[in-house]
Specification:
alpha/beta; 6-stranded mixed β-sheet; binds magnesium ion; binds adenosine-5'-triphosphate; about 240 residues; Rossmann fold
Length: about 240
Amino acid sequence: MKTPVPQQALVVEGLEVRYDTVPVVHGIRVVVQTGEAVAVIGSNGAGKTSMLRGIMRLVTAPVQRLELFGQSVRALRTHLINHAGIGYVPEGRELFPGLTVHEELLIGGRRLPRSERGVQLEAMFAMFPRLRERHRQVTRTLSGGEQQMLAIARTLMARPRLLLLDEPSLGLAPVIQDLVYGTLETLRHQGLSMLLVEQNAFRALKLCSRAYVLELGRITREGSSDELLGDPAIQTAYLGR
Ligand SMILES: Nc1ncnc2c1ncn2[C@@H]1O[C@H](COP(=O)(O)OP(=O)(O)OP(=O)(O)O)[C@@H](O)[C@H]1O
Ligand SMILES: [Mg+2]
C-alpha cells in the first residue's frame, strides 16, 4: 500500500528571529499545502529573508512548530533540513564565483546517488538550455539572469520536495524575470510545493495561489492571490497603483 502524501508541505508556527536582542520576526505562522505555491510579499526590511533563514535554521530562531510533510524538523540543523527535502534558493544567489556551471550543479547534486547525478544534470540542462550552452563558463561571468537560473537549478539538483525562493526577480530585467518565472510556473505545474518571498508582489501573486503579507516582522494579511490583487490597500502599498 502506498503511504499517503501528507497534506501540508510546510507548517511554521511561532517563528521568532532576533539579531542580538533585536526581534525582526515576531512569532509568525505560515503554511504551505502539498503542491501549493505560496507567496510572502513585503517591502525592504520587512523580515522576509530573516523568515526564510529562520526556517532553514541558518539563524538561531525559536519556533513552536516547524514541520515538513508531517514530520517535525524543529530540532534539525540546516544540512539535515536540506536532506529532509527543503531546497533553498537564497537572496543574491550565493554561487561559487570560480566554479563552472557544471561544477556548481554537481555541488547541488552531491547527495544524490552517483548513478542519478547524470540524469538529474540532464534534466536541468533540458529545463535551462542556457546553462547547457554555458556549462564550462565560470559562474562570476554569467549574466544576472543566468546566475539566477543556475541558483535555482543547483537547488533542484538535490530533488527537493519543497522549494523556498528569496526574491528570484531581484535585479533582473523584465524579460529575464519572465524567463525565470516561466520556469517557476513549470515547476508549479509539476506539483512542486513552493514558498516564494518577493518584493515584486505582482509577479509573486500571479504565480502563487495564496499569499501572506509581512510587515515589520508580522503577518498582517493572508488570502488568495486574486483577493489580494483586487484589494485597493494592497494595490497602493505593493502594486504601485
Ligand atoms: N545579520 C543581521 N544582523 C542584524 N540585523 C539584521 C541582520 N539581517 C537583517 N537584519 C535586520 O532585520 C530586518 C529584516 O531584514 P531582512 O533582510 O529579513 O528583510 P527583507 O524583508 O528580506 O528585506 P529586503 O526586501 O530588503 O531583502 C532589517 O531591519 C534588517 O536590518
Ligand atoms: Mg531579503
